[in-house]
Amino acid sequence: MTDHQSISLDWMSPDGDELRPPADLRPEIPHPARMYDYYLGGKDNFPADREAAERVMALSPMVRISALANRAFLQRAVRHLAQQGVKQFLDIGTGIPTVGNTHEIAQQVHPDARVAYLDNDPIALVHGRALLAGAGHGRATVVHADLREPDAILDNPELHKVLDLGQPVALLLFAILHFIDDADNPYGIVRQLLDALPSGSYLALSHGTSDFTPAADQGKGAAIYRNASAQLTTRSREQVLRFFDGLELMEPGLVTAPLWHPDQEPRETDATTGIWVGVARKP
Ligand SMILES: C[S@@+](CC[C@H](N)C(=O)[O-])C[C@H]1O[C@@H](n2cnc3c(N)ncnc32)[C@H](O)[C@@H]1O
User: Fold this and answer.
1) Domain holding 273: CATH number?
2) What is the pLDDT of residues 142-179, one digit of tens each?
3) Which atom of ligand 1 is nearest to the CA of 146?
């Protein structure tokens, strides 16, 4: 897609108004969901997104490696959780759908698995709804919500149509918490969401880090995101570990994305890929 017009045409759905693009796309402002789509090799992005993403990649080729490793972790983690018996998934910061989305993987294991996708990005929402409008998917919904408003998330009637919060739920926070800065209380948000879920629920998250970025380059990526619609706050391993306080971290603990139950040959970059990941059970 190269401009606003071509995106609008893609969104003319037989399902009607709900799939029409909201007015607030702001294609001139780089957006994290569309930049991430570009890192992954997707086409749902505007020139401003591509330009910002190229600048980040010029700083470090590891950015694209990290994005791909993050997406692969998402898929392994969802499959692993489904195999543990989890049938409900609350996926916040869904992103633009690509191959191997949460509901597709979960429903390979449990055809009746339920997924609520939440995102605050209009492009991610419209593409998500278009994906789910097709035949052959189980119970899943796409909801407009902001992670910084956990009360609104927990009260959202659409979410409650799909998820029963009285039964265990896997809370999925993949590559989103680094868009929540400290002033917005990310630890408190995660705690509040987990407090609303019963014992036997899970937290799976991935989080960008600068732990492996040379000192001279620290902060340069964040500087580019400063002009985007969400700011980047990378966190250290110790800071990411805090999100799991009070939970039982599953094997192999908090590791870089490629090292979590790997399913491919090891690569030299595995231990320094800039994404910490972990999966934990609520006791
Ligand atoms: C890097 S993408 C990650 C997509 C997917 N979770 C994955 O890991 O492949 C980050 C997503 O988080 C969304 N996001 C960022 N800040 C958000 C917020 N405050 N509330 C809801 N979604 C947010 C963006 O719109 C984007 O779709």
Assistant:
1) 3.40.50.150
2) 999 999 999 999 999 999 999 999 999 999 999 999 99
3) 20
Provide the 10 A C-beta neighbour count for residue 194. Answer: 19
Which residues make Cβ contacts (< 8 Å) with residue 110, sequence separation at least 6? Answer: 82, 87
Most ligand 1 atoms within 8 A of CB, residue of 29, 46, 119 to mutate: 119
Burial 113-137 (b: 16+ CB within 10 A, else e): bbbbbbbbbbbbbbbbbbbbeeeee
Please name the amino acid found at residue 133. A
Q: Is the minimum distance from the CB of 205 to ligand 1 under 6 angstroms? A: no
Closest to 163 measured CA to CA, from 228, 130, 117, 226:
117
Nearest CA to ligand 1 atom 13: 93
Determine whether the shortest distance from the Cβ of 221 to ligand 1 is under 6 A.
Answer: no
Q: Which domain holds residue 56?
A: 4-281
| Intervals of the chain under pLDDT 50 | 1-21, 23
Task: Give the Å distance between the CA of 247 and the centre of ligand 1.
Answer: 23
pTM for the model: 0.90
User: How many angstroms is it from 68 CA to the middle of ligand 1?
Assistant: 15
**Number of domains, the chain:** 1
- Euclidean distance between CA atoms 276 and 279, whole angstroms: 11
